[in-house]
Design goal:
DNA damage; 354 residues; hypothetical protein yedk fold; five-stranded antiparallel β-sheet; phosphoprotein; ubl conjugation; 7 helices
């Protein structure tokens, strides 16, 4: 399943991270719809707004279906046929949609039949592993493996159009398959766009954490086919929905358990072998300071804050006796990338404010 995500990039940086090629092979950036509704956060939960990609054809009748829009949508699909005036009165959970019953449930079958496919964007998602013999649960942060390339390190100014056109070559966003719908209040008012994340059986690498995972679209081709409902049929698109092993993860602290906590500590790795939070090393402190420069637009004033020296260190991330595969290299690249971004201090990494 998927019940918590992180998407903390400022709006302009998120836009560049979603650069793509249209049907003519032209490099493009997606355009925003309702950009003011996007609030970056390290700890997004259902009923909050999250950014999703979708085809421009959903909004413009004569548009090219390969062109993309980014729109903040409510997490938790509200069916178009829902008759109550308050979406919170929906009697069933639509945060996730099981791939094996997607064509059986009206709430998902109807919008899918209309081509209402979207891609949910995130840094990664959180999942909780039940600890044997106790009722405690250990949270993990799960994301795409990050590969450092020759071009990494050149982000450019986010407010410079010529730099916007460059191919994004930094943090790779997690792209999850979703379905969205449009609900109109029976008494009139603004249309509510909302979505659900499709889930599948977990891949082998994640099965010891949880038996379900989001349907992850791994690569530009998969993302394009899922979004392009004008050219790709529902039957063909559903062939993209399956588990992927191209995923990595690390343990995080229980700070993320409370959805009101919205700080970089939510996704900072902890060492489970030591079983306590370690004092941050110098490089860890610089990385966490960089994350702090990109704090979300709206942060709960009551969110508990810890002194910097109490924030857990980026270190080895897996249980000492866990059968899960060890993937330390990716965590190392993650730390290097974050550290480098802080040292460069580009304009794009400053806090977003309207």
């Amino acid at each position: 399943m998927c019940g918590r995500t992180s998407c903390h990039l400022p709006r302009d940086v998120l836009t560049r991270a979603c650069a793509y090629q249209d049907r003519r092979g032209q490099q493009r950036l997606p355009e925003w719809r309702d950009p003011d509704k996007y609030c970056p956060s390290y700890n997004k939960s259902p009923q909050s707004n999250s950014p999703v990609l979708l085809s421009r054809l959903h909004f413009e009748k004569d548009a090219d279906s390969s062109e993309r829009i980014i729109a903040p949508m409510r997490w938790g699909l509200v069916p178009s046929w829902f008759k109550e005036s308050d979406p919170s009165k929906l009697q069933f959970n639509t945060t996730n949609c099981r791939s094996d019953t997607i064509m059986e449930k009206r709430s998902f079958k109807v919008p899918l039949g209309k081509g209402r496919r979207c891609v949910v964007l995130a840094d990664g998602f959180y999942e909780w592993q039940r600890c044997q013999g106790t009722n405690q649960r250990q949270p993990y942060f799960i994301y795409f493996p990050q590969i450092k390339t020759e071009k990494s390190g050149s982000t450019g100014a986010a407010d410079s159009p010529e730099n916007w056109e460059k191919v994004w070559d930094n943090w790779r966003l997690l792209t999850m398959a979703g379905i969205f719908d449009c609900w109109e209040p029976p008494e009139g008012g603004d249309v509510l766009y909302s979505y659900t994340i499709i889930t599948v059986d977990s891949c082998k690498g994640l099965s010891d954490i949880h038996h379900r995972m989001p349907a992850i679209l791994d690569g530009e081709e998969a993302v394009s086919k899922w979004l392009d409902f004008g050219e790709v049929s529902t039957q063909e698109a559903l062939k993209l929905i399956h588990p992927t092993e191209n995923i990595t993860f690390h343990a995080v602290s229980s700070v993320v358990n409370n959805s009101r906590n919205n700080t970089p500590e939510c996704l900072a790795p902890v060492d489970l072998v030591v079983k306590k939070e370690l004092k941050a090393s110098g490089s860890s402190q610089r990385m966490l300071q960089w994350l702090a420069t990109k704090s979300p637009k709206k942060e709960d004033s009551k969110t508990p804050q810890k002194e910097e020296s109490d924030v857990p260190q980026w270190s080895s991330q897996f249980l000492q006796k866990s059968p899960l595969p060890t993937k330390r290299g990716t965590a190392g690249l993650l730390e290097q990338w974050l550290k480098r971004e802080k040292e460069e201090e580009p304009v794009a990494k400053r806090p977003y404010s309207q």
